Amino acid sequence: MDGCMRRVCPCLVKLWDRGKKDVPAGDDPGEGEVVAPPRKTPPLPPAKEKGSIYVALWAFEARHEEELSFETGDMFNVLSRDGDWWKARKIDTNGRVLGTGFVPNNYLERADVSVESVGFFCRWYFGTMNRFEAQENLMSPDNDNGAFLIRESDRDTVGYVLSVKSSTRVKHFKVMKDDSEQFHIEPSPHFSTLLDLVEHYSNYSLSGVGRLGKPCKRKKPEPTDLNHLIKDEWELPKEEFSLEEELGSGFFAEVYRGRWKSNINVAIKIIKNSELNHQEFVREVEMLKRLRHRHLISLFAVCTESPPYYIVTELMEKGSLLQFLRGPEGQHQDIVSLVDMGAQVADGMSYLEENNCIHRDLAARNVLVGEGYICKVADFGLGRIIKEPFYVSEDKKIPYKWSAPEAISHGKFSSKSDVWSFGVLLYEIITFGGNPYPGFTLKEVFEQVKDGYRMPCPTKCPEFLYKIMMECWSAEPENRPTFKLLKDRMDTCITPYEDNN
Ligand code: ADP
């Protein structure tokens, strides 16, 4: 954070360093921890209070006894950080502890970078955020034209991005660095800090958006992730869950919106096959519990004491990617956003590949979309035991149009057969949920593909994307790219930014 502060707002570093010196000897904050600089109102807890001070940006109401309720402006000491939920102590202005529990980290801001302590400057710095989240924040009616923010892209290769509201859309400008580490958006001028850059474009026009207006007002996020409540005990009694409306149903399961202990939103998948091998199922769940990634659906619990089995996961408000693409929101996405969705899926799949987990049924229907258009791969891992018995007995349930030829003919599933399916998923994305191989029967698809037929480039599909699809559909699995390579290529092959170079 110290380094980040130096790059973002060097003028604050003195204040920052002074804050650090106030820490009594022997009570040095750990790495990344800084004691807030002195200020007048409200007084900070004594400097010997170990750890950083955080301030709540919005109120939050606990939904579970282990979570902590708080009001806007409440102060915290963070005890441990694990994912999106942090264990924290709520403290008063004298440092007295008012309560301890889990808090959603995106509701908190460090006091040492808060508006109050450092003034106006850093209100535009939003930390790590993807373009969709930036869009959702900027497009809220609270923000006028010219509202802006600087964020660190969640893509490793991108770095800082300036996002600006410009009438009906948001424009994103990649902030580049020259050889002497100076920032620039246009070929010139160059700036030694982001603050200088922001100040410059507040006074002079940036091509396409004019002068920067006010820093973006943050939208209150919805806490959804459940990882902090997951304990070693994954088997939970069905009575703890209540079912609400049906969200969808497929060959293998019915999915309901539901609640855990009356107040936590979850998705509950009820498996139709009641003859599952219990031991095998539990073994597979054991493995799935360890797989945690931003672009994979989090498993929350299972109920397997009696059939039908429940699989409980986080709830994704916008439903499947297929429904999303075909609906009004999907139809408004531009090419850059569509490619970004594909890149998110490649990211999640790359993690599965690294962990030797084969999906077996990757398709837009098995990717779910949440707030901020985050895409998460669902239905991984359990495919083999839930779906395969059906494939053997009922031919029509095999996802022919998504499956690699070697998977259909010899049952050879691998990460490379998942890559084949990913190519088909890209086709679905770029055609806004189009049906692959239109006009072909399932058997025709298999025969034709085996003989070398491949779908032609869809209208409006950029050439680079079709090239990726065709590589995913290489007849020989070893000639297909890995997900790791796909993720890197999708991140870089399209510059999701305004033409700023
Ligand atoms: P099947 O594998 O039997 O086809 P799915 O897992 O695809 O069943 O679920 C069917 C539908 O239920 C999905 O298309 C989606 O609309 C909805 N759904 C599934 N899981 C979730 C979830 N976690 N959050 C929200 N909707 C979900």
UniProtKB/TrEMBL annotation:
Signal peptide: none
Annotated SH2 domain residues: 124-216
Top EC class for this record: transferase
InterPro entries: Kinase-like_dom_sf, Non-receptor_tyrosine_kinases, Prot_kinase_dom, Protein_kinase_ATP_BS, Ser-Thr/Tyr_kinase_cat_dom, SH2, SH2_dom_sf, SH3-like_dom_sf
Binding site for ATP: K269
Region (Disordered): 22-47
SUPFAM superfamilies assigned to the protein according to its UniProt record, in alphabetical order: Protein kinase-like (PK-like), SH2 domain, SH3-domain
Keyword Lipoprotein: yes
Reactions this protein catalyses: L-tyrosyl-[protein] + ATP = O-phospho-L-tyrosyl-[protein] + ADP + H(+)
Gene3D superfamilies membership: SH2 domain, SH3 Domains, Transferase(Phosphotransferase) domain 1
Domain Protein kinase per the UniProt entry, residue ranges: 241-498
Location(s) in or outside the cell: Cell projection, Ruffle; Cytoplasm
GO cellular component: cytoplasm; nucleus; ruffle
All residue ranges annotated as the SH3 domain in the record: 49-113
EC number, as in UniProt: 2.7.10.2
UniProt entry keywords in alphabetical sequence: ATP-binding, Cell projection, Cytoplasm, Kinase, Lipoprotein, Myristate, Nucleotide-binding, Phosphoprotein, SH2 domain, SH3 domain, Transferase, Tyrosine-protein kinase
Keyword presence, Phosphoprotein: yes
GO MF terms, alphabetically ordered: ATP binding; non-membrane spanning protein tyrosine kinase activity
Family the UniProt entry places it in: Belongs to the protein kinase superfamily. Tyr protein kinase family.
PANTHER family given in the database record: TYROSINE-PROTEIN KINASE
UniProt name for this protein: Tyrosine-protein kinase
Organism: Neogobius melanostomus
